[in-house]
Amino acid sequence: MNPNETHKPINVGLLGIGTVGGGAFTVLARNAAEITRRAGRPIRITHVADKNLDLARKVGAGVTVTDDAFAVVDDPAVDIVVELIGGYGVAKELVLRAIANGKHVVTANKALLAVHGNEIFAAAQAKGVMVAFEAAVAGGIPIVKAVREGLTANRIEWIAGIINGTTNFILSEMRDKGLSFAAALADAQRLGYAEADPAWDIDGVDAAHKITILSALAFGIPMQFERAHIEGISQLEADDIRYAEQLGYRIKLLGITRRRPEGVELRVHPTLIPAKRLIANVEGVMNAVLVQGDAVGATLYYGRGAGAEPTASAVIADLVDITRMATSDPENRVPHLAFQPDAVEDTKVLPLAEVETSYYLRLRVEDKPGVLADITRILADQQISIDAMIQREPDEGESQTDIIMLTHITRERNIDAAITKIEALPVVKKKVIRLRMEALG
Q1: CA 86: distance to chain centroid?
Q2: How many angstroms separate the CA atoms of 369 and 373, rounded?
Q3: Which of 258, 298, 323, 404 qualifies as a cystine partner to 39, CB 3.0-4.6 A?
Q4: What pLDDT, on a 0 to 100 scale, did the predictor assign at position 81?
């Protein structure tokens, strides 16, 4: 962009005119005067590429419509490319081509950045263009800007987030209505909160993409998605949600990244959180991210993590940022991943065995004397101490019962060793259910 053309409109090429693309048109049109006052010049979507030409043509007059996305990224009239296609495939080619053509990029594609972000940001740095991605994490919540800019004085210690609305809705339904996972998933699909194929959501992959990005921003490390530990919620049972509640906890699917002296924890899994924490009370499809900084303490960011206008809000904020900064010297812009590119450290992500947290254990055992003593001895041998316990009375005529234990903080490898020995006891009748816990205090 020519620095002398300070009042010339910024031309945006939109790749993909689905929910978010349509939302971007709506919000840009509705708030055009306000956005221009903030950006310093008008921002207008002038080109749209989508395989569905009929849908693309509905966006309004004066827009060049095509089914060839490469024609948009190659068009010299386009200043900024907004990529809303998703996935790892053609989206990567288009983004790299836009960068090679000297165009700035806005993307909502968390999968692309988590897996190929290191390559994409290096290409953008070399070309002197910006890649903005506020919409890639937690929809309309400005969490990328908060971590990258607002908290820049802090040494960030950890981040824990409810960053997938589909799974949070399912867990809320299981808790509120006592539903099984399958029944709650069916509800989510019927209401349009879950896809027909919900695998990336319920298996934790979507949340892992997002926490990978936040981890890089928080700690100045490369994207390391392939090293993340990922567990979803499909194996979660209603019994454990009920027991957690009795003990004063809620179960949420959390993305967690924590700085430790020997490396960084990067994990997604169902997690027990004390019910008194604000984040434990985030229900339905809402998202929330808790960030702990050394100077500021804990800060919580809450809002809609998906949807047409919330996500469009983040896309347009990125467009305004690029418009404001496009004429500045690349060395004076906010770095893509918060830290200067030559200051990114290749700190390792720790294997799961090295993770430190506390645990919820549910054991199905024969109701007979000495069982508890055998179990507590095994835990003590692994330096695991017990924080709380429930032993259910067996149902009438039953010879088996559940024991629920909460442990103090220990290493995952110690819990693994203890569970192996506990499951070998003749009195233990099923595999031990193990869930991780976070105090988030």
Answers
A1: 15
A2: 9
A3: 323
A4: 98
CA-CA distance, 313 to 28, in Å (whole number)?
9
| Positions of E strands within 146-262 | 156-162, 229-230, 249-260
Residues 71-97 have pLDDT tens digits of 999 999 999 999 999 998 899 999 999
Q: What 3-state DSSP class applies to 399?
A: coil
Report residue 147 as tokens: 């971590």
What ranges do the domains of the chain cover?
10-140+308-343, 143-304, 356-437
Residue 440 has pLDDT above 70, yes or no: yes
Assigned architecture for domain 143-304: 2-Layer Sandwich (3.30)
116 pLDDT band (50/70/90 cuts)? very high
Residue 255 has pLDDT above 90, yes or no: yes
Fold of the domain spanning 356-437: Alpha-Beta Plaits (3.30.70)
> Encoding tokens for residue 192?
């349009």
Q: How many CB atoms lie under 10 A from the CB of residue 175?
A: 19
In CATH, what number does 10-140+308-343 get?
Answer: 3.40.50.720
C-alpha distances in Å from residue 210, one per residue of 41, 330, 352: 32, 26, 19
Over its C-alpha atoms, the chain yields an Rg (Å, rounded) of 24
- DSSP one-letter string for 422-441: HHTSTTB-SPPEEEEE----
Task: Give the active site residue among 177, 210, 368, 429.
Answer: 210
Residues whose CB falls within 8 Å of the CB of residue 309, separated by 6 or more in sequence, listed in order: 23, 26, 27, 140
Higher-scoring residue by pLDDT: 228, 394: 228
* From 10-19, 171-180, 269-278, 388-397, the region with the lowest mean pLDDT: 388-397
Tokens linked to 21: 């693309």
At position 353, the amino acid (one-letter code) is A
Which pair of structure tokens corresponds to residue 367?
Answer: 């109701």
- DSSP letters spanning 280-317: GG--TTEEEEEEEETTTEEEEEEEE-SSHHHHHHHHHH
Burial of 226 (0-12, 13-18, 19+ CB in 10 A): exposed
The residue with tokens 């430790």 is 260
CA distance 379 to 275: 26
**What is the mean pLDDT of the segment spanning 403-432?**
96
- What torsion, rounded to 10 degrees, do the Cα atoms 1, 148, 270, 231 define? 50
CA–CA distance, 234 with 424 (Å, rounded to integer)? 26
CB–CB of 396/416 below 8 Å? no
Catalytic residue check, 145 = no
